[in-house]
Every structure is written in C-alpha cells, then in structure tokens.
Amino acid sequence: MAQHVAQPTATTPVVPAKLPLKDIAPWAVFFGVLMLVLLYFVGAEQGATSVVSGEGVHEWVHDARHLLGFPCH
Amino acid sequence: MNSTTVRNLLVRGMLAGLGAGVLALVVAYFLGEPNVDGAIGFEESHAPAHEHEVELVSRSLQSTAGLATGVLLYGVAFGGIAALAYCFALGRVGRFGPRATALLLSGAALLTVYVVPFLKYPANPPAVGDHDTIAKRTTLYFLMMVLGVLLAIAAVIAGKRLTPRLGTWNATVAAVVGFVLVIGLAYGFLPAVNEVPADFPATLLWRFRLSSLAMQVTMWAAFGLVFGELAERLLNPRPATRPAGTKATAAAPN
Q1: Which residue has the higher pLDDT, B204 or A72?
Q2: Beta-carbon separation of A61 and B78 below 8 A
Q3: How far does A30 lie from chain B, in Å, by closest CA?
Q4: CB contact, 8 Å: B34 with chain A?
Q5: Which of A44-48, A64-68, B4-8, B114-118 has the lowest mean pLDDT?
Q6: HSE on the CB side for A61, CA within 13 Å?
Q7: Domain limits, chain A
Q8: Chain A interface disruption, residue of B69, B120, B128, most A CBs within 10 A
Q9: Most buried of B78, B154, B175, B218, CB within 10 angstroms?
C-alpha cells in the first residue's frame, strides 16, 4: 500500500514553486550589473573602449580573452 | 523567505561558476595554450623587428595567472547571471525539477552566449585580427551575444504562448524553428569578418577554435550539473530520517 502511494510522486516530476518577481528584482539589478561589469573587464576593457588607461588589464587577461572567444586585438 | 532563496541560489550559482571555471581552466591550459603559443610563434616570425616592444606582462604570467584570472572571473560572473536567470526560470518554463531546469538553462546559456556568436564571429588566436577594426568586431560580437539571449527569451515566451493551441511538442518545435530562422537572418545581414592572414596555418586555427569550444562546453556542462545539484538540495531538502541517516541520528547525543 505504501509503495502504491509512493510511486506517483517518484515518477511525476515535482514542479518547483515560482519565486515572485519582486523578490528577484533587487538581486537581479545589483548583482546583474556587478557581474556584467566583471564580464566587461574580462572581455572588452582596453580593447575597443578603455576605462583604465594603459594596457595592463588587456595584457593580463590576454590569453583568457582569446580562448573565451572575445575579439582581443 | 523567498528573498533568502534568491540569495542562496545566487551564492550557489557563483560557487558553481567558480568550480566550472576551474575545470574550464584545466581544458584551457592543456588544450588551448599550446595553440596560443603556436599562433604567437607565427606572429613573431612575421612581425617587423621594430614591433617587438617591452612586454608588459610576460608570456609565462599570461598563460597561467592571467589566464586563470580571466577564466575564473568569467565563470563566477556568468554563474551569478545564470543563477539569477534560474530564479526567473524556476517553475515558469515547464514541468521541470530543479536539476533539469539548471541543465536546460545551462545548455541555453552555452548556445546563446557562446555558440550563436561563435558561428558568425569565431574565436581568433593571436596574430589573427586587424588592430584597426577592434571596435567594430567587439560591437558585432557583443551584439550577437545580446541578440542570442534576447531571441532565446522571446522563443521561450512564444513557445509558452503557443502551447495551449499547438500542444507542448509542436509549440517547442515552432519556437526553436523561429529562433533558428531569426538567427539565420541576423547571420545573413550582419557584416562578415575575415582577417585571417593568408599564410596562417589552417590546422592551428581549427585546433584553436576547437579548444575554445571545448572550454565553453566543459564550463557550461559542469555549471549545469553542479548548480542543479546544489539547487536541488536547497529547494528539496531530503527528510532527515532516512535509512542511512537513522543510525547517525540515533548515535547523536541529542
């Protein structure tokens, strides 16, 4: 009997509850922007555009930028 | 309560991204770096003597600490973004549990932020690419990334809207076909970039691009599996009293 009851829950996937958008929004805005800034420094800084002067950032992440697929120089 | 779940998922996403970055770094170091060195060798044998200026960062640092910095930051950053996207996707994309949602999201991320731009503007080793067109190439590359992500979101929304009329299978097929068609149109209309020097070894270029793809596949596969497992444990915690756990609870002093 117990097996018979347990079976449907094992085969039917449990659909997780939706997280309300108002709870996601503040995290998405602050951390989303922060992560995009990180990606900018890895992928594009001192290439097409420069925030920090010089070539230091570009040269330091040079190999990663090539291998990750970003246009480097 | 829900806000705490979002925070916990975000932290786990960044950690899973870091772990996935470590694996991608191993692939990058052993598969990718030999090709980067090969391309730099080609560059040096072709550059005029006066172009050899003082190195700001030595090759040995670029291929180790520099590579690690870039790849790990990329992993953490995309891990965080993917975790936030996961919070939106959870329970909204279909009848998928936490692990399946994570793996699907990870596959979609690999496709939209890497494969879609890669098929039009593939990764290039050093010595390939004209300094004067870097602004144009960067713009086109990021445009392709953004286009891929936005079109994938649009395809998911369209698929959900079509489901009541067409059924899940046909709606999914229609959404995927729509996505492929619009991406194909973008490929057709956006300008091509071909700056490979005429005598650059074709095998080296192919191997470099393959190693770049291998890195990304490693990263996103690892991220999907690790983050899915962490999310599963967070969202569906196992009951404390299980056959294996019973002994431990009984043995515990209180």
Answers
A1: B204
A2: no
A3: 11
A4: no
A5: A44-48
A6: 24
A7: 17-67
A8: B69
A9: B78
For residue B117, the model assigns a pLDDT of 96
The C-alpha atoms of residue B34 and residue B48 are separated, in whole angstroms, by 23
pLDDT digits (tens, 9 = 90+) for B184-196: 999 999 999 989 9
Three-class secondary structure of residue A24 per DSSP: helix
Q: Do A68 and B90 touch (CB under 8 A)?
A: no
Contacts of A46 in chain B (CB under 8 A): none
Q: What is the predicted ipTM?
A: 0.88
